Amino acid sequence: MGQSSSAEQVSPEQREAESIAASTGALPNLQKAFSVLSDPQTHSIPIHSLQKCFGFSIDGSTNEESVVPKEFPVLMSNLSSSIVDLFFLSEKGGISWVEFLKGYIKCSGRTVSSASLNSLLRLFGMISVKAGLPEKLQVVSDEDDCKISGFLLPADVQMLLSMCWIMWCDSIKLKASSSLGDSGLPDVTHLVLSAVDSCADADKKLDLWENSILDMDIQLPVAKIIMWALKTLPSLSDCFGKFVHARLFYLAAHEQEKLDQVDHFSHDISAKEMSVGHLLNSGRAWAISLTLRGTLSEEISKVCFPSAAEEVDDYLLYRSSLHGKGLNRFWSNIEGYNAPLLILISAHEANNDARRWIIGALIHQGLENHDTFYGTSGGLYSISPVFHVFTPSGKEKNFVYSHLHGTVKYEAHPKPVGLAFGGSFGNERIFVDEDFAKVIVRHHACDKTYHHGPLYPDQGFLPVEASIMDVEVLGLGGKRARDIQSSYKKREELFTEQRRKVDLKTFGNWEDSPEKMMMDMVSDPNRVRREDR
Protein backbone atom coordinates (compact mmCIF):
# COMPACT_ATOMS: atom_id res chain seq x y z
CA MET A 1 0.00 0.00 0.00
CA GLY A 2 2.88 2.29 -0.61
CA GLN A 3 4.34 1.87 2.89
CA SER A 4 7.48 -0.08 3.72
CA SER A 5 7.41 -2.48 6.61
CA SER A 6 9.36 -1.84 9.77
CA ALA A 7 11.79 -4.60 8.89
CA GLU A 8 12.67 -2.99 5.58
CA GLN A 9 15.14 -0.18 5.49
CA VAL A 10 13.72 2.96 3.91
CA SER A 11 16.05 4.42 1.30
CA PRO A 12 16.95 8.12 1.42
CA GLU A 13 15.28 8.54 -1.97
CA GLN A 14 11.99 7.17 -0.66
CA ARG A 15 12.23 9.16 2.54
CA GLU A 16 12.74 12.38 0.56
CA ALA A 17 9.85 11.66 -1.80
CA GLU A 18 7.50 10.83 1.07
CA SER A 19 8.57 13.97 2.90
CA ILE A 20 7.78 16.19 -0.09
CA ALA A 21 4.40 14.50 -0.61
CA ALA A 22 3.59 14.80 3.10
CA SER A 23 4.38 18.52 3.07
CA THR A 24 1.53 19.02 0.59
CA GLY A 25 -0.88 16.84 2.58
CA ALA A 26 -1.20 14.39 -0.29
CA LEU A 27 0.64 11.38 1.13
CA PRO A 28 -2.35 9.49 2.70
CA ASN A 29 -4.40 9.72 -0.50
CA LEU A 30 -1.43 8.76 -2.65
CA GLN A 31 -0.99 5.65 -0.51
CA LYS A 32 -4.64 4.73 -1.09
CA ALA A 33 -4.36 5.37 -4.82
CA PHE A 34 -1.21 3.24 -5.04
CA SER A 35 -3.02 0.47 -3.19
CA VAL A 36 -5.85 0.50 -5.74
CA LEU A 37 -3.57 0.64 -8.79
CA SER A 38 -0.76 -1.70 -7.75
CA ASP A 39 -0.46 -5.43 -8.34
CA PRO A 40 -0.37 -7.26 -4.96
CA GLN A 41 2.20 -9.73 -6.26
CA THR A 42 4.73 -7.31 -7.73
CA HIS A 43 3.93 -4.34 -5.42
CA SER A 44 4.11 -2.04 -8.44
CA ILE A 45 1.61 -0.37 -10.73
CA PRO A 46 1.15 -1.86 -14.21
CA ILE A 47 1.62 0.78 -16.86
CA HIS A 48 -1.78 0.15 -18.44
CA SER A 49 -3.50 0.69 -15.06
CA LEU A 50 -2.00 4.14 -14.60
CA GLN A 51 -2.79 5.02 -18.22
CA LYS A 52 -6.40 4.02 -17.59
CA CYS A 53 -6.44 6.24 -14.50
CA PHE A 54 -5.63 9.29 -16.65
CA GLY A 55 -7.81 8.27 -19.60
CA PHE A 56 -11.13 9.63 -20.81
CA SER A 57 -13.14 9.60 -24.00
CA ILE A 58 -13.61 12.46 -26.44
CA ASP A 59 -17.15 12.59 -27.84
CA GLY A 60 -18.28 14.49 -30.91
CA SER A 61 -16.35 15.27 -34.03
CA THR A 62 -14.79 18.30 -35.64
CA ASN A 63 -16.30 20.04 -38.66
CA GLU A 64 -16.10 23.36 -40.44
CA GLU A 65 -17.75 25.10 -37.47
CA SER A 66 -15.48 23.51 -34.85
CA VAL A 67 -13.31 25.69 -32.67
CA VAL A 68 -10.38 23.21 -32.89
CA PRO A 69 -8.49 21.58 -35.78
CA LYS A 70 -9.48 18.14 -37.00
CA GLU A 71 -6.32 16.62 -35.45
CA PHE A 72 -7.42 17.51 -31.92
CA PRO A 73 -9.34 14.26 -31.07
CA VAL A 74 -6.36 12.16 -32.19
CA LEU A 75 -4.05 14.34 -30.14
CA MET A 76 -6.16 13.93 -26.98
CA SER A 77 -6.28 10.15 -27.37
CA ASN A 78 -2.53 10.08 -26.60
CA LEU A 79 -2.75 12.19 -23.42
CA SER A 80 -2.83 9.42 -20.81
CA SER A 81 0.00 7.37 -22.32
CA SER A 82 2.17 10.47 -22.72
CA ILE A 83 1.69 11.46 -19.06
CA VAL A 84 2.85 8.04 -17.89
CA ASP A 85 5.75 7.80 -20.34
CA LEU A 86 7.04 11.30 -19.57
CA PHE A 87 6.67 11.63 -15.80
CA PHE A 88 6.35 8.12 -14.30
CA LEU A 89 9.47 6.00 -14.79
CA SER A 90 8.79 2.27 -14.89
CA GLU A 91 10.99 -0.67 -13.96
CA LYS A 92 10.40 -4.14 -15.39
CA GLY A 93 6.96 -3.25 -16.65
CA GLY A 94 5.74 -1.63 -13.45
CA ILE A 95 5.95 1.62 -11.50
CA SER A 96 7.31 1.40 -7.98
CA TRP A 97 6.07 3.37 -4.97
CA VAL A 98 9.04 5.75 -5.12
CA GLU A 99 8.64 6.41 -8.84
CA PHE A 100 4.91 6.90 -8.33
CA LEU A 101 5.59 9.58 -5.72
CA LYS A 102 8.24 11.26 -7.84
CA GLY A 103 5.92 11.29 -10.83
CA TYR A 104 3.17 12.93 -8.80
CA ILE A 105 5.59 15.57 -7.52
CA LYS A 106 6.74 16.34 -11.08
CA CYS A 107 3.13 16.81 -12.22
CA SER A 108 1.40 18.36 -9.20
CA GLY A 109 4.10 19.30 -6.72
CA ARG A 110 4.91 22.81 -5.62
CA THR A 111 7.21 24.46 -8.11
CA VAL A 112 7.75 27.72 -9.93
CA SER A 113 5.36 28.58 -12.74
CA SER A 114 8.05 28.53 -15.42
CA ALA A 115 8.96 24.92 -14.56
CA SER A 116 5.28 23.92 -14.67
CA LEU A 117 4.93 25.53 -18.10
CA ASN A 118 7.97 23.65 -19.32
CA SER A 119 6.39 20.39 -18.18
CA LEU A 120 3.13 21.28 -19.91
CA LEU A 121 4.93 22.07 -23.16
CA ARG A 122 6.96 18.85 -22.96
CA LEU A 123 3.71 16.94 -22.59
CA PHE A 124 2.13 18.73 -25.54
CA GLY A 125 5.22 18.06 -27.65
CA MET A 126 5.13 14.32 -26.93
CA ILE A 127 1.39 14.12 -27.59
CA SER A 128 1.82 15.91 -30.91
CA VAL A 129 4.53 13.49 -32.04
CA LYS A 130 2.42 10.48 -31.06
CA ALA A 131 -0.50 11.95 -32.99
CA GLY A 132 1.66 12.13 -36.12
CA LEU A 133 2.05 15.91 -36.18
CA PRO A 134 5.36 17.53 -37.15
CA GLU A 135 7.81 17.89 -34.27
CA LYS A 136 8.15 21.56 -33.40
CA LEU A 137 9.45 21.44 -29.81
CA GLN A 138 12.82 20.11 -28.68
CA VAL A 139 13.97 19.41 -25.14
CA VAL A 140 17.37 20.99 -24.56
CA SER A 141 18.09 19.03 -21.35
CA ASP A 142 16.43 16.21 -19.45
CA GLU A 143 16.90 17.80 -16.05
CA ASP A 144 13.93 18.66 -13.82
CA ASP A 145 14.21 22.30 -14.90
CA CYS A 146 14.56 21.33 -18.56
CA LYS A 147 14.63 23.98 -21.23
CA ILE A 148 12.41 23.87 -24.30
CA SER A 149 13.30 25.22 -27.72
CA GLY A 150 11.38 25.43 -30.96
CA PHE A 151 8.16 27.12 -31.97
CA LEU A 152 4.40 26.68 -32.21
CA LEU A 153 1.93 27.76 -34.85
CA PRO A 154 -1.30 29.57 -33.89
CA ALA A 155 -3.24 26.34 -34.52
CA ASP A 156 -0.91 24.54 -32.08
CA VAL A 157 -1.54 27.20 -29.43
CA GLN A 158 -5.27 26.72 -29.98
CA MET A 159 -4.98 22.95 -29.41
CA LEU A 160 -2.73 23.50 -26.36
CA LEU A 161 -5.30 25.82 -24.78
CA SER A 162 -8.15 23.44 -25.60
CA MET A 163 -6.21 20.58 -23.99
CA CYS A 164 -5.73 22.69 -20.86
CA TRP A 165 -9.45 23.49 -20.83
CA ILE A 166 -10.37 19.78 -20.90
CA MET A 167 -7.94 18.94 -18.09
CA TRP A 168 -9.19 21.92 -16.06
CA CYS A 169 -12.84 20.93 -16.58
CA ASP A 170 -12.06 17.35 -15.63
CA SER A 171 -10.52 18.41 -12.31
CA ILE A 172 -13.51 20.68 -11.57
CA LYS A 173 -15.99 17.87 -12.25
CA LEU A 174 -14.11 15.40 -10.06
CA LYS A 175 -13.93 17.92 -7.23
CA ALA A 176 -17.60 18.97 -7.44
CA SER A 177 -20.00 17.22 -5.09
CA SER A 178 -22.85 17.47 -7.62
CA SER A 179 -22.89 16.44 -11.25
CA LEU A 180 -21.97 19.16 -13.73
CA GLY A 181 -23.05 19.23 -17.32
CA ASP A 182 -20.70 19.30 -20.28
CA SER A 183 -19.99 22.86 -21.32
CA GLY A 184 -18.29 21.88 -24.58
CA LEU A 185 -15.10 23.40 -25.92
CA PRO A 186 -14.99 27.20 -25.64
CA ASP A 187 -13.86 29.55 -28.34
CA VAL A 188 -10.31 30.55 -27.37
CA THR A 189 -9.66 32.76 -30.38
CA HIS A 190 -9.13 35.80 -28.16
CA LEU A 191 -6.36 33.96 -26.29
CA VAL A 192 -4.66 32.70 -29.46
CA LEU A 193 -4.69 36.20 -30.92
CA SER A 194 -3.20 37.45 -27.67
CA ALA A 195 -0.32 34.99 -28.05
CA VAL A 196 0.16 35.98 -31.70
CA ASP A 197 0.08 39.68 -30.83
CA SER A 198 2.67 39.21 -28.04
CA CYS A 199 4.98 36.61 -29.59
CA ALA A 200 5.08 37.34 -33.32
CA ASP A 201 8.01 39.26 -34.76
CA ALA A 202 7.60 43.01 -34.57
CA ASP A 203 8.13 43.44 -38.31
CA LYS A 204 5.04 41.36 -39.15
CA LYS A 205 1.96 43.49 -39.84
CA LEU A 206 -1.02 41.60 -38.48
CA ASP A 207 -4.67 42.49 -38.88
CA LEU A 208 -6.10 41.10 -35.67
CA TRP A 209 -9.63 41.95 -36.83
CA GLU A 210 -9.63 39.85 -39.99
CA ASN A 211 -7.14 36.95 -39.83
CA SER A 212 -8.31 33.39 -39.24
CA ILE A 213 -6.02 31.78 -36.68
CA LEU A 214 -6.09 28.38 -38.38
CA ASP A 215 -4.79 29.95 -41.59
CA MET A 216 -1.92 31.85 -39.97
CA ASP A 217 1.50 30.45 -40.81
CA ILE A 218 3.39 32.36 -38.13
CA GLN A 219 6.09 30.73 -36.03
CA LEU A 220 5.81 31.73 -32.38
CA PRO A 221 9.05 31.05 -30.45
CA VAL A 222 8.40 28.87 -27.42
CA ALA A 223 10.47 31.17 -25.18
CA LYS A 224 8.11 34.05 -26.00
CA ILE A 225 5.08 31.82 -25.48
CA ILE A 226 6.32 31.02 -21.97
CA MET A 227 6.81 34.71 -21.20
CA TRP A 228 3.35 35.51 -22.59
CA ALA A 229 1.71 32.79 -20.49
CA LEU A 230 3.49 33.89 -17.29
CA LYS A 231 2.31 37.47 -17.83
CA THR A 232 -1.18 36.93 -19.23
CA LEU A 233 -2.31 33.51 -17.90
CA PRO A 234 -0.24 32.76 -14.79
CA SER A 235 -2.57 29.92 -13.73
CA LEU A 236 -2.52 28.10 -17.09
CA SER A 237 0.12 25.60 -16.00
CA ASP A 238 -2.02 24.63 -12.98
CA CYS A 239 -4.53 22.91 -15.29
CA PHE A 240 -2.23 19.92 -15.78
CA GLY A 241 -1.24 19.61 -12.12
CA LYS A 242 -4.86 19.84 -10.97
CA PHE A 243 -5.87 17.16 -13.47
CA VAL A 244 -3.31 14.62 -12.20
CA HIS A 245 -4.07 15.52 -8.57
CA ALA A 246 -7.85 15.21 -9.04
CA ARG A 247 -7.67 11.85 -10.84
CA LEU A 248 -5.50 10.21 -8.17
CA PHE A 249 -7.49 11.71 -5.29
CA TYR A 250 -10.77 10.60 -6.86
CA LEU A 251 -9.38 7.09 -7.09
CA ALA A 252 -8.37 7.20 -3.42
CA ALA A 253 -11.79 8.50 -2.30
CA HIS A 254 -13.73 5.94 -4.38
CA GLU A 255 -11.50 3.02 -3.57
CA GLN A 256 -14.37 0.55 -3.57
CA GLU A 257 -15.15 1.35 -7.19
CA LYS A 258 -11.61 0.37 -8.14
CA LEU A 259 -10.45 1.36 -11.59
CA ASP A 260 -13.59 0.53 -13.55
CA GLN A 261 -15.31 3.84 -12.88
CA VAL A 262 -12.37 6.21 -13.20
CA ASP A 263 -12.52 6.72 -16.96
CA HIS A 264 -16.28 7.25 -17.21
CA PHE A 265 -15.74 10.98 -17.68
CA SER A 266 -16.18 12.05 -21.25
CA HIS A 267 -15.90 15.41 -22.98
CA ASP A 268 -18.11 16.43 -25.88
CA ILE A 269 -16.04 18.74 -28.06
CA SER A 270 -19.04 19.43 -30.30
CA ALA A 271 -21.26 20.73 -27.46
CA LYS A 272 -22.33 24.34 -27.57
CA GLU A 273 -20.33 26.82 -25.55
CA MET A 274 -22.13 28.00 -22.41
CA SER A 275 -22.92 31.66 -21.76
CA VAL A 276 -24.08 33.26 -18.52
CA GLY A 277 -24.38 36.80 -19.82
CA HIS A 278 -24.64 38.32 -23.25
CA LEU A 279 -20.98 39.34 -23.08
CA LEU A 280 -19.48 36.70 -20.77
CA ASN A 281 -19.26 33.21 -22.23
CA SER A 282 -17.32 30.27 -20.84
CA GLY A 283 -14.19 30.99 -22.89
CA ARG A 284 -13.93 34.58 -21.68
CA ALA A 285 -14.74 33.62 -18.09
CA TRP A 286 -12.05 30.92 -18.17
CA ALA A 287 -9.48 33.37 -19.53
CA ILE A 288 -10.21 35.84 -16.73
CA SER A 289 -10.05 33.08 -14.10
CA LEU A 290 -6.58 32.09 -15.33
CA THR A 291 -5.30 35.58 -14.51
CA LEU A 292 -6.28 35.13 -10.84
CA ARG A 293 -5.77 32.72 -8.00
CA GLY A 294 -7.76 31.71 -4.94
CA THR A 295 -11.44 32.29 -4.21
CA LEU A 296 -11.92 34.96 -6.85
CA SER A 297 -10.69 32.63 -9.58
CA GLU A 298 -13.06 29.90 -8.40
CA GLU A 299 -16.05 32.25 -8.40
CA ILE A 300 -15.42 33.34 -11.98
CA SER A 301 -14.83 29.74 -13.12
CA LYS A 302 -18.28 28.70 -11.83
CA VAL A 303 -19.95 30.47 -14.75
CA CYS A 304 -18.27 28.06 -17.18
CA PHE A 305 -20.68 25.23 -16.44
CA PRO A 306 -24.39 24.71 -17.18
CA SER A 307 -25.29 24.29 -13.51
CA ALA A 308 -23.97 27.77 -12.83
CA ALA A 309 -25.70 29.19 -15.87
CA GLU A 310 -29.03 27.99 -14.51
CA GLU A 311 -28.60 30.38 -11.61
CA VAL A 312 -27.87 33.55 -13.56
CA ASP A 313 -29.39 35.74 -10.85
CA ASP A 314 -26.64 34.65 -8.46
CA TYR A 315 -24.02 36.27 -10.71
CA LEU A 316 -25.60 38.74 -13.12
CA LEU A 317 -26.37 41.97 -11.26
CA TYR A 318 -26.94 44.30 -14.19
CA ARG A 319 -27.31 44.16 -17.96
CA SER A 320 -28.13 47.36 -19.81
CA SER A 321 -30.16 45.57 -22.48
CA LEU A 322 -32.28 43.99 -19.74
CA HIS A 323 -32.46 46.59 -16.96
CA GLY A 324 -32.13 49.74 -19.05
CA LYS A 325 -29.26 52.10 -19.79
CA GLY A 326 -28.06 54.85 -17.51
CA LEU A 327 -26.14 55.32 -14.30
CA ASN A 328 -29.31 55.43 -12.16
CA ARG A 329 -30.55 52.06 -13.50
CA PHE A 330 -27.06 50.69 -13.06
CA TRP A 331 -26.84 51.96 -9.48
CA SER A 332 -30.21 50.61 -8.43
CA ASN A 333 -29.06 47.08 -9.30
CA ILE A 334 -25.56 47.08 -7.83
CA GLU A 335 -26.06 49.26 -4.73
CA GLY A 336 -25.47 47.35 -1.52
CA TYR A 337 -23.33 44.64 -3.16
CA ASN A 338 -20.12 44.82 -1.14
CA ALA A 339 -18.01 42.21 -2.91
CA PRO A 340 -15.79 41.94 -6.02
CA LEU A 341 -17.43 43.02 -9.28
CA LEU A 342 -16.64 42.25 -12.92
CA ILE A 343 -17.82 45.02 -15.26
CA LEU A 344 -17.90 44.37 -19.03
CA ILE A 345 -18.43 47.01 -21.72
CA SER A 346 -19.13 46.28 -25.38
CA ALA A 347 -18.64 49.20 -27.77
CA HIS A 348 -17.55 50.26 -31.24
CA GLU A 349 -16.10 53.41 -32.72
CA ALA A 350 -18.35 55.80 -34.60
CA ASN A 351 -19.11 54.77 -38.20
CA ASN A 352 -17.44 51.40 -37.65
CA ASP A 353 -20.10 49.08 -36.29
CA ALA A 354 -18.38 45.97 -37.66
CA ARG A 355 -15.38 46.31 -35.35
CA ARG A 356 -16.90 45.78 -31.93
CA TRP A 357 -14.70 45.24 -28.94
CA ILE A 358 -15.20 44.25 -25.31
CA ILE A 359 -13.22 45.64 -22.39
CA GLY A 360 -13.64 44.94 -18.70
CA ALA A 361 -12.69 45.97 -15.21
CA LEU A 362 -12.41 43.82 -12.11
CA ILE A 363 -12.61 45.60 -8.77
CA HIS A 364 -12.12 43.82 -5.47
CA GLN A 365 -14.85 45.67 -3.60
CA GLY A 366 -18.33 47.08 -4.09
CA LEU A 367 -18.98 50.44 -5.74
CA GLU A 368 -19.56 53.60 -3.72
CA ASN A 369 -20.90 57.04 -4.61
CA HIS A 370 -17.71 59.10 -4.33
CA ASP A 371 -16.48 62.28 -5.99
CA THR A 372 -12.91 60.95 -5.86
CA PHE A 373 -11.09 57.85 -7.07
CA TYR A 374 -10.94 54.96 -4.59
CA GLY A 375 -10.30 51.22 -4.38
CA THR A 376 -7.84 48.71 -2.95
CA SER A 377 -7.03 46.59 -6.00
CA GLY A 378 -8.34 45.59 -9.40
CA GLY A 379 -7.47 44.98 -13.01
CA LEU A 380 -8.37 46.07 -16.52
CA TYR A 381 -9.05 43.60 -19.34
CA SER A 382 -9.02 43.69 -23.09
CA ILE A 383 -11.37 40.77 -23.73
CA SER A 384 -12.37 40.74 -27.39
CA PRO A 385 -11.13 40.41 -30.07
CA VAL A 386 -7.74 40.10 -28.29
CA PHE A 387 -7.29 39.17 -24.64
CA HIS A 388 -4.87 41.10 -22.42
CA VAL A 389 -4.80 41.82 -18.70
CA PHE A 390 -3.47 45.01 -17.10
CA THR A 391 -2.68 44.51 -13.43
CA PRO A 392 -2.00 47.29 -10.89
CA SER A 393 1.34 49.03 -11.37
CA GLY A 394 1.63 50.14 -7.74
CA LYS A 395 2.34 53.78 -8.65
CA GLU A 396 -1.17 55.14 -7.99
CA LYS A 397 -4.44 53.85 -6.54
CA ASN A 398 -7.04 55.39 -8.87
CA PHE A 399 -8.73 52.05 -9.36
CA VAL A 400 -12.34 53.12 -9.78
CA TYR A 401 -14.49 56.26 -9.81
CA SER A 402 -18.29 56.12 -9.49
CA HIS A 403 -20.19 59.35 -8.95
CA LEU A 404 -23.89 60.17 -9.16
CA HIS A 405 -25.43 63.62 -9.02
CA GLY A 406 -24.61 65.27 -5.71
CA THR A 407 -27.15 66.42 -3.14
CA VAL A 408 -25.86 70.01 -3.30
CA LYS A 409 -27.83 72.01 -5.87
CA TYR A 410 -24.94 74.26 -6.85
CA GLU A 411 -21.25 73.42 -7.00
CA ALA A 412 -18.62 75.82 -8.27
CA HIS A 413 -16.58 72.98 -9.73
CA PRO A 414 -18.83 69.93 -10.09
CA LYS A 415 -17.15 66.56 -10.43
CA PRO A 416 -17.98 64.50 -13.53
CA VAL A 417 -20.96 62.15 -13.23
CA GLY A 418 -20.19 58.67 -14.50
CA LEU A 419 -18.03 55.59 -14.09
CA ALA A 420 -14.26 55.56 -14.62
CA PHE A 421 -11.20 53.31 -14.20
CA GLY A 422 -7.58 54.46 -14.01
CA GLY A 423 -6.05 57.78 -14.94
CA SER A 424 -7.13 61.01 -13.21
CA PHE A 425 -9.91 63.60 -13.39
CA GLY A 426 -10.31 64.71 -16.98
CA ASN A 427 -7.84 62.06 -18.15
CA GLU A 428 -9.52 58.81 -17.14
CA ARG A 429 -8.25 55.73 -18.94
CA ILE A 430 -11.85 54.48 -19.25
CA PHE A 431 -14.80 56.81 -18.69
CA VAL A 432 -18.49 55.88 -19.11
CA ASP A 433 -20.97 58.76 -19.21
CA GLU A 434 -24.08 58.89 -17.03
CA ASP A 435 -26.38 57.82 -19.88
CA PHE A 436 -24.26 54.76 -20.72
CA ALA A 437 -24.31 55.94 -24.32
CA LYS A 438 -20.62 56.77 -24.78
CA VAL A 439 -17.34 55.45 -23.42
CA ILE A 440 -14.07 57.35 -23.72
CA VAL A 441 -10.89 55.25 -23.93
CA ARG A 442 -7.55 57.00 -23.55
CA HIS A 443 -3.95 55.97 -24.17
CA HIS A 444 -2.20 54.28 -21.26
CA ALA A 445 0.22 57.22 -20.91
CA CYS A 446 -2.40 59.01 -18.81
CA ASP A 447 -2.69 56.12 -16.36
CA LYS A 448 -0.28 55.24 -13.55
CA THR A 449 -2.63 52.85 -11.74
CA TYR A 450 -2.72 49.98 -14.24
CA HIS A 451 0.03 48.60 -16.45
CA HIS A 452 0.42 49.82 -20.00
CA GLY A 453 -1.06 48.31 -23.12
CA PRO A 454 -3.83 48.83 -25.72
CA LEU A 455 -7.39 48.05 -24.66
CA TYR A 456 -8.32 47.03 -28.21
CA PRO A 457 -6.40 46.49 -31.47
CA ASP A 458 -5.05 49.55 -33.26
CA GLN A 459 -5.77 51.90 -30.36
CA GLY A 460 -4.02 55.17 -31.09
CA PHE A 461 -2.59 57.93 -28.91
CA LEU A 462 -5.65 60.19 -29.07
CA PRO A 463 -8.74 59.68 -26.89
CA VAL A 464 -11.48 57.67 -28.59
CA GLU A 465 -15.19 58.20 -27.98
CA ALA A 466 -17.08 54.99 -28.76
CA SER A 467 -20.77 54.06 -28.74
CA ILE A 468 -21.76 51.59 -26.03
CA MET A 469 -23.64 48.51 -27.18
CA ASP A 470 -24.09 46.78 -23.84
CA VAL A 471 -22.87 46.82 -20.25
CA GLU A 472 -22.87 43.86 -17.87
CA VAL A 473 -21.95 43.55 -14.20
CA LEU A 474 -21.36 40.22 -12.47
CA GLY A 475 -21.04 39.81 -8.73
CA LEU A 476 -18.26 37.51 -7.55
CA GLY A 477 -19.02 37.41 -3.84
CA GLY A 478 -21.13 34.27 -3.87
CA LYS A 479 -24.52 33.68 -2.33
CA ARG A 480 -23.65 35.43 0.93
CA ALA A 481 -22.92 38.76 -0.78
CA ARG A 482 -26.17 38.54 -2.74
CA ASP A 483 -28.15 37.80 0.42
CA ILE A 484 -26.60 40.82 2.15
CA GLN A 485 -27.56 42.98 -0.84
CA SER A 486 -31.13 41.67 -0.72
CA SER A 487 -31.36 42.58 2.97
CA TYR A 488 -29.98 46.04 2.21
CA LYS A 489 -32.55 46.62 -0.53
CA LYS A 490 -35.43 45.49 1.68
CA ARG A 491 -34.27 47.86 4.40
CA GLU A 492 -34.03 50.76 1.94
CA GLU A 493 -37.51 50.00 0.57
CA LEU A 494 -38.88 50.02 4.11
CA PHE A 495 -37.30 53.42 4.83
CA THR A 496 -38.63 54.82 1.56
CA GLU A 497 -42.13 53.61 2.32
CA GLN A 498 -41.99 55.14 5.78
CA ARG A 499 -40.93 58.50 4.35
CA ARG A 500 -43.84 58.46 1.93
CA LYS A 501 -46.44 58.14 4.67
CA VAL A 502 -47.68 61.36 6.29
CA ASP A 503 -48.90 61.14 9.87
CA LEU A 504 -51.48 63.92 10.32
CA LYS A 505 -51.31 63.57 14.09
CA THR A 506 -47.84 65.08 14.05
CA PHE A 507 -49.29 68.38 12.83
CA GLY A 508 -50.90 70.88 15.27
CA ASN A 509 -54.20 72.74 14.92
CA TRP A 510 -54.66 74.61 11.62
CA GLU A 511 -55.50 77.86 13.42
CA ASP A 512 -52.11 77.86 15.12
CA SER A 513 -50.07 76.64 12.16
CA PRO A 514 -47.48 78.80 10.36
CA GLU A 515 -49.13 77.92 7.08
CA LYS A 516 -52.42 79.64 8.10
CA MET A 517 -50.53 82.75 9.23
CA MET A 518 -48.79 83.00 5.85
CA MET A 519 -52.08 82.55 4.01
CA ASP A 520 -53.70 85.29 6.06
CA MET A 521 -50.82 87.67 5.37
CA VAL A 522 -51.09 87.05 1.64
CA SER A 523 -54.85 87.63 1.64
CA ASP A 524 -54.69 90.94 3.68
CA PRO A 525 -51.14 92.13 4.29
CA ASN A 526 -52.33 95.47 5.83
CA ARG A 527 -54.39 93.87 8.51
CA VAL A 528 -53.29 94.96 12.01
CA ARG A 529 -52.34 92.04 14.16
CA ARG A 530 -51.63 91.89 17.80
CA GLU A 531 -48.99 89.50 18.94
CA ASP A 532 -50.26 87.00 21.39
CA ARG A 533 -48.40 87.18 24.65
Automatic annotation (TrEMBL):
Protein name according to UniProt: TLDc domain-containing protein
Highest taxon of source: Eukaryota
One Pfam family here: TLD
Residues covered by the TLDc domain: 290-477
